[in-house]
Amino acid sequence: REPLKAIEQFQTENGVLLPSLQSALPFLDLHGTPRLEFHQSVFDELREKLLERVSAIALEGKVEERYKKLEDLLEKSFSLVKMPSIQPVVMCVMKHLPKVPEKKLKLVMADKDLYKACAVEVKRQIWQDNQALFGDEVSPLLKQYILEKENILFSNDISFLHNFFSPSPKTRRQGEVVQKLTQMIGKNVKLYDMVLQFLRTLFLRTRNVHYCTLRAELLMSLHDLEISEICTVDPCHKFTWCLDACIREKFVDNKRARELQGFLDGVKKGQEQVLGDLSMILCDPFAINTLALSTIRHLQDLVGQDTLPRESPDLLLLLRMLSLGQGAWDMIDSQVFKEPKMEAELITKFLPMLMSFVVDDHTFNVDQKLPSEEKGPIPYPSTIPEAFTKFLQENRIACEIGLYYILHITKQRNKNAFLRLLPALVETFSDLAFSDIFLHLLTGNLTLLGDEFALEEFCTSLFDGFFLTACSRKENVHRHVLRLLLHLHHKVAPAKLESLQKALEPTKQSGEAVKELYNQLTEKLELRKPSPAEVTETPSMELPLPTVPTPASR
C-alpha cells in the first residue's frame, strides 16, 4: 500500500491546486478520461495564454520595461528550450526581443534543430554578424532565381505575344525568391547590403545579367512594403522607382526622361560610386529592353520629322543610359566610377544608317503602289552597307540597337528587310546575336513569318546562313533552333526539314536538354509521316484524285 500512498501524495502536491477541482476530477474518471489527457489539455491552454501574454508584453508599457520583462522571462525559461512542449514559448520570447543576448544567440546557432526552429526575427540577429551563414541561406535562392529565368528563356511555348518581357514588374516581384529574400531582410539594412554584395560578386564572377534584375526587384519589393529604413539609405531608390514605371509602360516618356536625367546629372563629386549601382540597375535586361524599344520608336519619329539623331536630346539620353547599363560589368570590375564615353560615330553615322533603312522600306512600299512602267518593279535593296556590319561587330551599343531594329522589322512581318540585314548577325559584338534573350525574342517574332518557312530561299538564309553557323559551337543556339522547329516544323518544306533534321542531330558532347528537344522533334516528325500501309493500298475501284497545286505563299 505504500506505493499507492506515495502516488496519491505526489498527485496532491503537483496537481492543479484548485479546491473546486478536487470534487470534479472523479467525474472525468467515470468518463474514462485519463488524468494525462486532462493535464495535457490544461497545459496546452496555459501555453496558449502565455504565448498571448508574451506578445502583449512586447507591445505595452515603456520600451525598457517591456524588454526587461521579456529578458527576465527568457533567462528563466531558456534552460527548457529543448523541451518540445516549452520550446514555442522560449522561441516566442526571443522573437519579440530586438536584441537577444549574444550568449543565447550563440547557443541557438550551435544547435541545428534550435536554429531551424527559431523565428526569422531571431535568425536576422544571427545572420547580421555571420555573413557566411547568411550566404548559405541565400545561395540556393539565388540559384533557383537564375534557373527560373533560364527556364522562361528556353520555354517550349513560343509566341510573339507572351515572351520573357511580358510580366509586369509588380507581377515579377511576387515571385517566390524575391518574396523570401524580402522576408529574410526585413528592415535590416546590414542584411540588405550583404545581399547586394552577393549579387555584385556573382554578377562579376558570371556576367549573368539576371542578377541585375534581382537587384532592382528586391529594392522595389521593399519599396512596395514601404520599408523606409532601407529605401531612404539606398541612393538608387528614386532612380529605380522612376525606371520601374518606364519598364511597366515599356517606354521612356519625356517627363520621366527628364527625371532620370536629373538623377544622373545629380551625382556629386565624391559620390561617383553610386554610378556602379545605377549601372547595375540599368544593366537589368528589362531596363535595356525598355531603353532599346524606346530608341527604335524615337528613330522612327525622327524619320517623320526630318530630324537627325544628334538633334534629339531625348534620344541622346536613352543612349547615355544604354551605355551606362552596358558598361556595368566593366565599371564594377575596374572600380573606376565614371560614365562611359559615347562614340560620336554611333550618333553621326550608325543611327542615321538605321534611319535610312526605315526610309528604304517607305520608298519600296510607295513604289509597289505606283503603276508599274516598262522598266518593271523596283527590287528591294539587297545589300547592306559594310559600315553597318562593322558597327555590329565593334560597338556594343550599336549592336544592341541593331538587334532590336531587326526584332522590330520581324514583328512587322517585313521579310525583305529581315533577309537583307540577317547576314550582319553572323558576327556581332561578343556574339550578342546568339545570346539567349535575343534568340528567345527572335524565335517568338519569327512565328509571325510562319508562311515564309515553306520557301527554300528563306529557310536557307535563316538556318544555313545564320543559325547553323553557330549551332556546333554554341549549345544554346542548338536549343533555340530546335525550339523553333518544334513549333513551326509543319510549315517547313519536307526536303528542307529532312536536311535540317540531319544537321541538328546531337553529338556525343551535346547536353541533355538538346537531346531531349531533338527526340521531341523526331517524335513529332514521325507522327506526320504517312504509314507505309496508307501509301501502298489504294482501293482498286477509286481513281486517285488529281493533285491540285497549292497557291504559292506570299
From TrEMBL:
One of its GO terms (cellular component) is NELF complex. Keywords: Elongation factor, Protein biosynthesis. GO terms for molecular function: translation elongation factor activity. InterPro entries: COBRA1. This is Negative elongation factor B. GO terms for biological process: negative regulation of transcription elongation by RNA polymerase II. Residues 528-554 are annotated as: Disordered. It comes from the Eukaryota. It comes from Charadrius vociferus. Pfam families: COBRA1 (PF06209).
